Structure formats: structure tokens, C-alpha cells
Amino acid sequence: MSIQFFSNLSKNYIEILEDDEYYDITIEVGEDPNVKIFHAHTIILCHRSPYLRRALANKRNNNNSGVLSHIKLPNILPEIFQIILKYIYGGILSLNEHDTLEILKVLIAANELLLNELVDYLQTYLIETSKILYEFYG
């Protein structure tokens, strides 16, 4: 028999994301004047995003061991990347907190980062939501 404790695991990974002590990468997100630097963990990013895996592999090949990595994602807004990071670390996505435009921005960012599970989910969510609205408003 196997028991799964995903809610506690998810909570612990969110705590890792919020911990500023043990990160090994900084991610500069957005464009001036709306730029934010996030702290993250290479091992988690590489296993959750094929795009980030490639970007970080290229950085690792060009960097000395033990040096803090830094990447830039100018095409993604900081508030959207925060939502993406919560998904990457904890598998958490709270769509009821966001309007359709924000959800579309999350979808575009998820597609750029090759987060296929999230892209598929958001596409289905937006289609279903639009069907409900169409049926309600005609």
C-alpha cells in the first residue's frame, strides 16, 4: 500500500521558494521600469521546465562551478512569473484570483517556458469558461 502526502510536499516546496538562504540562481524578469529579481533553485527549475533546463545548461557550460547563475526573462511580467513559480514549486494555481487577461498572460508565459501541463490546463479552462459565458449571455 502506498500513501501520498502531496499537500504537505507542496507546502514544503513553496517554503523552499520563499526561503532566501539556499537559492543558487537569480532570475531577472520584466523590462524597465517593471523589473523584479527572483531567487530560485536550479534543480527544481530544470526538472519542471524544459526551456529553463536548456537555458541553465547553457549557463552552466559557460560559468565556473560555484558561481551564482543569473538569467533574464524580459518577455514575462514579474507578477505573472510569480504565479508561474508557485505552479513550478508547489503545483498551485489559483485562477479565481485572476481575470481572463492575467490568465492569458500566464498561458503565454507557460508556453514560452514549455510548461505543457499548465498550457494544456489553461487552454481547457479558457475554452470551458468561454462556453459557460456564451451559454449564459448568449
From TrEMBL:
Q: Which residues form the BTB domain?
A: 23-97
**Which Gene3D superfamilies does this chain map to?**
Potassium Channel Kv1.1, Chain A
Q: Name one Pfam family in it.
A: BTB
Its cellular-component GO annotations read: cytoplasm
- SMART domains xref list: BTB (SM00225)
Task: Report what the protein is called.
Answer: BTB domain-containing protein
Q: Which organism is it from?
A: Rhizophagus irregularis (strain DAOM 181602 / DAOM 197198 / MUCL 43194)
